[in-house]
Amino acid sequence: MSAGAAQRTRAPFGVRSLRLSGRSEHGAYVVLRATDLDGPPPQPGQFYMLRTSRHWGAGTGERPFLPRAFSVLRATPGGSGLELEFLIEAVGPGTERLAELHEGEGLTVLGPLGAGFKPPRTGHRPVLVGGGVGIAPLAIWQDELQPAPFAAVVLLGFRDAEHAAGAELLSGAQVATDDGSVGHCGLVTDLLDAELDAGPPAEVYACGPPPMLEAVRRLCVERAAPAQLALEAGMACGFGACFGCVVPTARGLIRLCLEGPVLDAGALTDETFSVPAMGHSG
Amino acid sequence: MSAGAAQRTRAPFGVRSLRLSGRSEHGAYVVLRATDLDGPPPQPGQFYMLRTSRHWGAGTGERPFLPRAFSVLRATPGGSGLELEFLIEAVGPGTERLAELHEGEGLTVLGPLGAGFKPPRTGHRPVLVGGGVGIAPLAIWQDELQPAPFAAVVLLGFRDAEHAAGAELLSGAQVATDDGSVGHCGLVTDLLDAELDAGPPAEVYACGPPPMLEAVRRLCVERAAPAQLALEAGMACGFGACFGCVVPTARGLIRLCLEGPVLDAGALTDETFSVPAMGHSG
Amino acid sequence: MSTLFCGLELEHPVINASGTFDAIAAQRVFGDALHESFPFSAFVSKTVTLEPRQGNPAPRLWELPAGLLNSIGLPNKGLEGYLEQDLPALAALPVPLIVNVMGFTREQVGKLISTFARRGEVAAMELNVSCPNVETGLIMGADPEEVSRLLTLVRPLTDKPLIVKLTPNATDPAAVAVAAQDAGADAVSLINTIRGMALRPGTDQPWLGGGTGGVSGPAVRAIAASQINSVRAAVSIPIVGMGGVASGADALELLDAGATLVAVGTESFRDPIAGARVAAELDVLRARTPFSGAS
Amino acid sequence: MSTLFCGLELEHPVINASGTFDAIAAQRVFGDALHESFPFSAFVSKTVTLEPRQGNPAPRLWELPAGLLNSIGLPNKGLEGYLEQDLPALAALPVPLIVNVMGFTREQVGKLISTFARRGEVAAMELNVSCPNVETGLIMGADPEEVSRLLTLVRPLTDKPLIVKLTPNATDPAAVAVAAQDAGADAVSLINTIRGMALRPGTDQPWLGGGTGGVSGPAVRAIAASQINSVRAAVSIPIVGMGGVASGADALELLDAGATLVAVGTESFRDPIAGARVAAELDVLRARTPFSGAS
Lengths: 282, 282, 295, 295
Ligand SMILES: Cc1cc2nc3c(=O)[nH]c(=O)nc-3n(C[C@H](O)[C@H](O)[C@H](O)COP(=O)(O)OP(=O)(O)OC[C@H]3O[C@@H](n4cnc5c(N)ncnc54)[C@H](O)[C@@H]3O)c2cc1C
Ligand SMILES: Cc1cc2nc3c(=O)[nH]c(=O)nc-3n(C[C@H](O)[C@H](O)[C@H](O)COP(=O)(O)OP(=O)(O)OC[C@H]3O[C@@H](n4cnc5c(N)ncnc54)[C@H](O)[C@@H]3O)c2cc1C
Ligand SMILES: Cc1cc2nc3c(=O)[nH]c(=O)nc-3n(C[C@H](O)[C@H](O)[C@H](O)COP(=O)(O)O)c2cc1C
Ligand SMILES: Cc1cc2nc3c(=O)[nH]c(=O)nc-3n(C[C@H](O)[C@H](O)[C@H](O)COP(=O)(O)O)c2cc1C
Ligand code: FES
Ligand code: FES
Known about the structure:
By secondary structure, chain A is an alpha/beta fold.
């Protein structure tokens, strides 16, 4: 088995329809909670393909049609099963439809999929860097990381205050906003830059829009800090069937749904983030 | 202007979204009520093209896509506009979606469309014959018909008791059911047959499944009773644009949405009801 | 957003697709409002043939995922009937009139073209060589040489703009477009409907009275965009783009693919004023991205 | 509901469409459950070429109304890589293996066919002459003579069933099917994806890294049914029908149109066990209408 095997929980074969057990709003974001009776606990950084069990389609441009990929935000054992949480930013017909789902309605899921985060190397302190809705996989990762020997440092960047409301989903986060309305005025990579200078060697975990990930990658290469980046790509299937989600890496084009979404920064190249992307907001 | 002009109220140009002000169930049928702020009062026998304002699509077979035709069941002046009512039997993806609409949600309508019923000739008593969901246009017609010199006779046929619950939407109806669970065990045309023998000459108004309309037509030809039949055909547009809704008549193929849906029985031929139809249930 | 097309100055770049809007019927249904807010910047008639046609037997429609399958079969009153009964009413519309014609022989097409050439009410003609419901349409329009021979005969018969409507049911629509351009067409329009079929559920018999039919609507838009793009690369004459346009964004995509005008077809069935909505949405989008789809 | 196809006894008539299910990847993701409830009655590999291919640059996907536009570009490990890395795992699947091959020259196809002809793991071969993403695919498959020449060369190289996969981007797919049959094909399969395109919103540049792509999904089903029906009328060899099958009713429609097997493609992306659901729904429908689609 490969080194990444531990970060991959296998998915039940086929979609299953879960009941939405909760829905909450956090500024620009919606958190959906659904009860998973049959699924195994996911690894932090893994994702699910989601769609609403009814009326998935007929939105703007007669879409959505395919399911959409979402990082697991949290997974906690509940009374009747696993409580899965997802963080949704409505940016198009699929996310809009998901964001309007009501408690009690059905959420059709496939997952957990992909490979998640690997634990920090010995002696390295975890530094979590999130941008926008990319904070999602960092929440479950913060939950699972041991507080000792190092508590995780959490650095989050957002566009404005409305988005920065998402920071409440993690604990002890330092925040940067583009418009300075909350925290540091500027980029979250400014915070990372400073953080890399402070204390023992860092292992960086990052998820966010492509320009942010590219900046994190460059910074970590410069500082020789190991980094694991959770990427995005347009996905049709999520389980390696369509060959659609490729990203350029040092090993050539790889299927992100299968080999990622978490990839070592060292495996990436200058081209990785040059592909027209899903358009995440920071 | 042609003789039928009076039975045609012109529609506002373009669809409008109405708010659903009520929804009730009557056995196998659902009645939707919506407040029409801008539309003119329809003529009995006219119809509307309906769709839900949201999530019209993505049902069984990735349909519906086009709007669906519905006879107006009733139109009554309300506090803030006209209260339009429609009778829905869920038989496929479009009617299923409409039938699940909730109060307060949007109903997108185009109409009133087509030409409705003409008043009975002098000295003729109106006999209304409905089958299944075809009772809809007869309800508004019964409301509008003068009680003198003749009260309308209402004969309704249904499959079973669940469907016969729809009879409560008209007053004083005689009912026939296929399974004999309510009223006469047999066809509504049995009732019509008897009714044509009783009293002064009848003018028949009928709406229902093609075999019923064909039986009514033959009966009325035999008895030389004038009859106005409200037909159905698959429609894409409802306003004469697609040339899709043709039915064979003595004048050749005519667009039902434009020349009908109410047609004089005398204009029809043996072929009229031979076209694979929408599959109304009796 | 006024648009110049083959010498016609149109108020905006959105017209109707032939056979998807009957302005005379619409006036009966909607009254004067039709003229007051006419949704298209030019009106294209349903295909006119020399002789009257009943069209195909019912049923003529089958709903598809995000689309429509039809086999209408080109019912029309024939040339005489059109001239007498329809032309006066269509000439009164507030926009230029484009007459769509089709013939079963080159001579028939010639007769139609030369007749309309003499009518001042007619601003331009669209030549339907692409209807998948009628034998000839398919064959003429799929073969560059057929189109070339046809145009050579009929092009000299009129000074009015002549638009050749291409069939998508061809291995290489761009080659047909080149043949049309070389033989003097002023513009091409595409796509017509794509040949499709539905079976009566649970049987091996076709649902449609006409057997096969043509697919239209959002389901075909990406196919239309591709064909428009490849025709754009092959010819320099203007293109009327159509196929699944339901919004300003869709219209912009076909314009960006290479069209000068876009036509709205099936979407008008869902809303008779769809054309006006598409034009308005397009206006907003173009104001946002000023470099895009400039006419 | 067991089905006989070219001498293979299959448990039901639903297989996968080439390139839409990677059984090796699926095993990594879903584990043993994949083998325990394998959704298809035969497994068709993604297209194998002689040399390894990276495929097209990203982005490769664009969502359409009721459909998908893709330009994957046939990435694969090449013949050697397939034989070494994939064949052993695919041979272990609980169903017969059909290898899909494509070559850029007739000689390449010959090499592929003769190699797989000698492999006991391979039950049948599907010859892709129809992929719209790679120059040759389009040209070979659209021309009856090209197909005839190709088959004449490669048919003698194997006793195994040879299925020719047709392109829908042709004026007359039935003529190509006839050519394939006459040159010894055991079956034909259709439709492959239909050429389509999407533009990067607000620009005149293609969204897809490969420029154009292929349309699949429910949006193309009526087009598939029509082509299957016209091929059925022209040839007597069995047909593998595909294009937009998402339910048992869809599968039944393609069977009734003339197919012996149906393949599920895009729908597997929405649910990896879609094939099994389609087969089960089909079973129920056929029990209701016993005369329909008998194999
Ligand atoms: C592994 C992974 C994890 C993710 N986790 C999260 C998460 O936790 N929370 C979250 O909110 N999002 C997450 N995303 C992103 C999410 O999947 C996308 O936002 C979603 O797919 C957008 O779908 P949509 O229909 O709302 O918008 P779309 O319009 O489909 O997509 C938005 C973007 O896609 C492109 N696009 C536009 N039209 C099309 C089209 N027709 N076809 C294809 N692309 C088009 C454009 O670039 C557009 O900006 C994740 C993505 C991946 C791959
Ligand atoms: C003038 C008029 C008035 C009407 N009034 C009423 C009314 O008051 N109340 C009422 O309930 N109904 C009424 N109808 C019928 C109603 O319009 C149909 O029941 C409705 O369109 C069915 O749509 P659906 O999506 O539910 O079912 P569909 O599945 O679209 O239609 C059901 C039938 O259509 C056929 N069909 C199946 N699939 C397709 C397909 N893909 N494309 C086309 N046809 C298909 C079959 O024959 C099937 O049995 C009226 C129809 C007309 C024309
Ligand atoms: C019901 C219907 C009737 C049509 N009739 C004609 C016609 O008479 N002549 C013609 O050239 N095209 C005809 N077409 C094709 C349209 O003009 C247009 O090319 C096609 O529908 C694609 O556009 P759309 O997807 O916007 O509908 C017809 C299309 C439909 C749907
Ligand atoms: C993402 C994707 C990849 C495909 N790859 C191949 C391929 O490698 N070889 C091939 O012959 N067909 C390929 N196809 C075509 C399918 O096998 C099938 O013919 C087509 O998708 C229609 O079926 P569907 O609508 O069920 O998807 C591919 C289709 C898709 C959507
Ligand atoms: S999303 Fe289909 S292979 Fe990755
Ligand atoms: S429904 Fe379109 S013409 Fe009647």
